[in-house]
Amino acid sequence: MRMYDVISKKRDQVELTKEEIDFFIEGYTKGDIPDYQASAFCMAVFLRDMSEEERAHLTMAMVNSGDTIDLSSIDGVKVDKHSTGGVGDTTTLILAPLVASLDVPVAKMSGRGLGHTGGTIDKLESIPGFSVEMEKEDFIKLVNQNKVAVIGQTGNLTPADKKLYALRDVTATVNSIPLIASSIMSKKIAAGADGIVLDVKTGAGAFMKSEEESRKLAEAMVSIGNRVGRKTMAVISEMSQPLGKAIGNALEVKEAMDTLKGKGPEDLTELCLTLGSQMVVLANKASSLEEAREKLRANMENGKALEKFKTFIKSQGGDERVVDDPSLLPRASYQIDLPASESGYVKEMVADEIGKAAMLLGAGRATKESEIDLAVGLVLNKKVGDQVQKGESLLTLHANHEDVEEIKNRLYENITITENHVDSPTLIHGVIK
Ligand code: URA
Ligand code: CA
């Protein structure tokens, strides 16, 4: 087989076979196929698309390019949740203990954040002592014991995806549905989940800005998952403004604890109940979404969800006293309000730009090497649709330096207030099975 022929076939819109896709991924991972041919291949896929069968083959070829995690020694159906990235997305911190409180095993491998998107590990590490470094055996033992554990990236998972993603980044081929869908799904499948609940974001803060594109991506991932034998479904959710109120690591831990008590922001709570119900049903711990939702709601109110969070923190070396005393979390030196410059209704809070402002305060990494400040970030006091009086605080900056004028200006540029009534945006745009 020659790579030249595989590229020309894709260029001429002929469907590729499993053998041809395997040949490309194996050869590229080993270094036998050079970057220039892989670039041409990605561009051909970008322009010509892939059939559902080709996408499934590409995904499995990437899964097989490296290690996979075997979770079979964990009892029960292992359901993983994946979000396509957003601003202030605190859902994993809430969902992990919440669904575990219904005995759904959560064996989560997580990453650090990059750019304006926060990472679950960074957030958890703002709890003093908390560690995600452990042996795989201990990880599995913890999940069997407590139903929940989070581990950092281990092993050499999907090396083909790592190499291809970096190549796509410099060849204008990131934004291709078959390439994004296979990239994300290969990582979830290699991480060992039996079932996958996807939270596909739509709007300014999302990878996919339009609802139509988000839906296509969701359908592509659901099709791949189900074709390769993993129960997969997707929720399409709003990401035009940040999710919940807190953006920033320790601030989001506090927000997660409030939500686990049933006292969280409305949108964040609703998204967690929607995704959580799907996870509980996939794991066969409820027979309907309604029943699952009631059980989740009950555990927020009777304290079991929060108790599970405590157990989870303690089991990974963290100071579980933060649950009863959030002042033990890192706290920024300055709390600075951003007053509304006019009265009216909040029309827009551009999610990615607000995420970038939080990053500039130090909450996120501009590059992989940057150090982050776990204490800093933003807390929204108003959200889209809320009425506001001139001078009232739109949000509070939590900063470790006083010199925040530029960041404040940036925030003003990305928050629009209008005279007329504004509806709050629809949160859930659809469910794809
Ligand atoms: N996230 C991924 O993991 N892969 C992509 O291709 C795009 C976003
Ligand atoms: Ca949040």
Automatic annotation (TrEMBL):
Which SUPFAM superfamilies does this chain map to?
Nucleoside phosphorylase/phosphoribosyltransferase catalytic domain, Nucleoside phosphorylase/phosphoribosyltransferase N-terminal domain, Pyrimidine nucleoside phosphorylase C-terminal domain
- Report the InterPro entries cross-referenced here: Glycosyl_Trfase_fam3, Glycosyl_Trfase_fam3_N_dom, Glycosyl_Trfase_fam3_N_dom_sf, Nuc_phospho_transferase, PYNP-like_C_sf, PYNP_C, Pyrmidine_PPas_bac/euk, Pyrmidine_PPase_CS
GO MF term list = 1,4-alpha-oligoglucan phosphorylase activity; metal ion binding; thymidine phosphorylase activity
* Cofactor(s) the protein requires to work: K(+)
What does the record list as coiled-coil region(s)? 279-306
Reactions catalysed according to its record? 2'-deoxyuridine + phosphate = 2-deoxy-alpha-D-ribose 1-phosphate + uracil; thymidine + phosphate = 2-deoxy-alpha-D-ribose 1-phosphate + thymine; uridine + phosphate = alpha-D-ribose 1-phosphate + uracil
Q: Where is the Pyrimidine nucleoside phosphorylase C-terminal domain?
A: 345-418
Q: Name one GO biological process term.
A: pyrimidine nucleobase metabolic process
Q: Which UniProt keywords apply?
A: Coiled coil, Glycosyltransferase, Metal-binding, Potassium, Transferase
Got a GO cellular component term for this one? Answer: cytosol
E.C. code:
2.4.2.2
Subunit text? Homodimer.
Q: Which PANTHER family match?
A: THYMIDINE PHOSPHORYLASE
Give the family per the record: Belongs to the thymidine/pyrimidine-nucleoside phosphorylase family.
**In UniProt terms, what function does this protein have?**
Catalyzes phosphorolysis of the pyrimidine nucleosides uridine, thymidine and 2'-deoxyuridine with the formation of the corresponding pyrimidine base and ribose-1-phosphate.
The protein's name: Pyrimidine-nucleoside phosphorylase
What's the source species for this entry? Answer: Salinibacillus xinjiangensis
